[in-house]
Amino acid sequence: MEHNIFAEGLPVRRRPRPFCLLVFGASGDLANRKLYPAFFSLYREGAIDDWFLVGFGRRPWTDSDYRKEVEKALGGYHLTDDDHRDFLERCFYIQGDIDDLAAYQRLAESIHTDRDLVSYLAVPPEQYQPIIDNLYRSGLSRRHSCASRVVVEKPFGRSGHEAAELNDFITERYDESSVFRIDHYLGKETVQNIAVFRFGNGIFEPIWNNHYIHHVEITVAETVGVEKRAAYYEQSGALRDMVQNHLLQLLALVAMEPPTSFTSDMVRDEKVKVLRALRPLLDLDIFANTLRGQYKAGLIDGQQVPAYREEPGVDPNSQTETYAALVAHIDSWRWYGVPFILRTGKRLSRRVSEIAVHFKKPAMNLFPQAFGGANQLVFRIQPDEGLTLYLNTKIPGLTDHSRTVSMDFLYGTGFGHPSPEAYERLLLDALIGDSTLYTRRDEVEASWAFIDPIRAAWDSGSVPLHLYEAGSSGPVAAQGLAERIGDHWRRL
Q: 271 labelled as ligand-binding?
């Protein structure tokens, strides 16, 4: 088998101990689209050595049936005979219902006690508790000789109250250090680079404060609609689905203080301080500083697409938002007076995720004829991961006219090989036991404390639902949020 040269240089601490990865929802969409390809990539790169992959599900499959399912999920890879034999022969299947304790006991008997166990819950949220309870009752959640960890996908509760109850339930059966609440945005290369960029370069950290930064803009825009997730999305909406986790995590990384060391608890201690310092939005503040919208029919890439209310499985009178925007403030010494404007939406004109740091303009404008505007630093998370710094420079010629130019860095061209998928990094961290890029329970509960009042006001109808055309930049009224802080959104 051919190994990636970069993986060969992995330090010992980045290689997991012998382990078993147990996947609940083994035939599901998440396992097939994300987990199996990410796990196989780690195998191809030589990042994992001694392992077994075990799928758990209700389908009456044999090991051979399961291996065919995994092989199908790896259809994008050119598999050699050695790949087939070495990888697929380490894949096994356990049939059982999530409520069937006997199936878990069979599972416990089949897993060697000298291996770490990582249980990945690639299932709907309502199945978390019965699975975790049976892992505990069968002795699989707390093993004496080896580690046992559980990976839980979002959404983690639908409110702060539900999140706290779920946290209590899980930590009665697993140590908090063994609970990995995944947010795949934290596995993206550019997101990880925010901390390196800030704390590894002496020229930026001194100006990373309210003396030099005017505002920070965070955007996660999608061109897709709800696809096959209508049942989930009708209960969630953009605020729960994206803002409570992805966008607030990005905000915390941009705004956190330098940790004393780059270890999991030190980093997460600083992130939770930011989330707790978010100024609560209440009553009229919610009306003035938040906006919700829903897409109607329109054109995406020249193709006519239906309105959200016309999507299969959606209530024709649905009030669920597919677009959410808000202005947030962090009441801390570093960030007091700096607005953070956040937006996310479906069926927008372009797929893009980015963080734009807008610096203040010079105190005196010496070049009024053609001054390009304030400097910006943009972290591009997707689709083209990288950084762009916008600077003003003189246009060559006999005048003093100036304009804005960009200095670009792309991961793909800068390092000569593509960045790993987010799930590769996060999965490897879970296998090792490094929770730096996972969210801790106090982070989850602090973010819900900020979101819950907004959610309650939106559900009561006190904030209007603005319709916007699919393929546009979102509701026209959203421009008002940016104008209130003296600027405008970056173009999508």
A: no
pLDDT tens per residue, range 330-354: 999 999 999 999 999 999 999 999 9
pLDDT given at position 397: 81
Determine whether the annotation assigns residue 154 to a binding site.
yes
Q: Are 219 and 254 in contact (CB under 8 A)?
A: no
**Cis (ω within 30 of 0) for the bond into 420?**
no
* Catalytic residue selected from 246, 358, 401, 417: 246
Distance, CA of 224 to CA of 301 (rounded, Å) = 11
Mean pLDDT within 430-456: 95
Q: Is 144 a catalytic residue?
A: no
Please say if the pLDDT value at position 264 is more than 70: yes
pLDDT at 7 over 50: no
Is 188 labelled as part of a ligand binding site? Answer: yes
pTM: 0.92
72 is in an annotated binding site: no
Give pLDDT tens digits for 265-276: 999 999 999 999
With cut-offs at 50, 70 and 90, classify the pLDDT of residue 113.
confident
Q: Is the per-residue pLDDT at 368 higher than 80?
A: no
Q: Domains in the chain, please, with CATH?
A: 5-153 (3.40.50.720), 186-484 (3.30.360.10)
58 is in an annotated binding site: yes
For residue 357 the two structure tokens come to 């740091």
Please, which residues have CB within 8 angstroms of residue 93's CB and are 6 or more apart in sequence?
26, 54, 55, 56, 57, 61, 62, 63, 65, 66
Closest residue by Cα to residue 190 from 408, 24, 458: 408
- Contact present, 378 and 394 (Cβ < 8 Å): no
Whether 184 has a binding-site annotation, put simply, is yes
- Interior CA angle at 426 toward 412 and 342, to 5°? 75
Residues 6+ apart with CB under 8 A from 335: 209, 210, 255, 277, 329
